[in-house]
User: What shape does this take?
Amino acid sequence: MIKIVNSWYSILKDEFAKDYFLSLQKFLNSEYLNYTIFPKEENIFKALNLVPIDRVKVVIIGQDPYHEPGQAQGMSFSVPENFPFPPSLINIFKEIETDLNIKCKNSGDLTRWAKQGVLLLNTVLTVRKGFANSHKDKGWEKLTSKIIEILGKKKEPIVFMLWGSYAQSFAPLIEKQHLILKAPHPSPLSAYRGFFGCKHFSKCNEFLAKNNKEPIDWS
Assistant: This one.
């Protein structure tokens, strides 16, 4: 079940040996055997596998994977090519287009961002079909908190986009050399309370340029 690139495995291997993760693995083995679980096992660590730790420039924290068939692909907010955009992703694209005065591609597959160093990290990496948050408090949060803490201690500046109170609860793990951008969640319930107009994408690119890093093409 741990199909993860060496750059992350070498840093997280101690976590994988801890009781909480062994217990999580036992739980997941049973879940995948008895229920439909998203994403597929080979995509559980896709977000990490696409962005080696030394290439992380931006972190966007999500909660748990989409729980309807065909949506989850192992990256927060992302859906496969040719799949209808979920409401939060629609709002993310709206803000990008307004903020940067560009047109986003007609694809919800955010692999194009990951390849530029955007880590699309859910804090819970699996979910049972049809049941949002069904794998909450099973151990994933300990692992992903450790990942955020490790990135938060890196000397190399990173941009952290924390949307909604849940994502913002991880801010204490992030040290001051990084840029922390906070806004309400982009879901239809809260996007009009400050996500629209937050200009996180232009602020991110300004920070990256100031630190001699290539800005992200958010289109």
Remarks:
- Residues 152 and 174 are 4 Å apart (CA to CA).
- The helical segments are 6-16, 19-34, 46-50, 87-100, 111-114, 140-152, 164-168, 200-210.
- The longest strand covers residues 58-62.
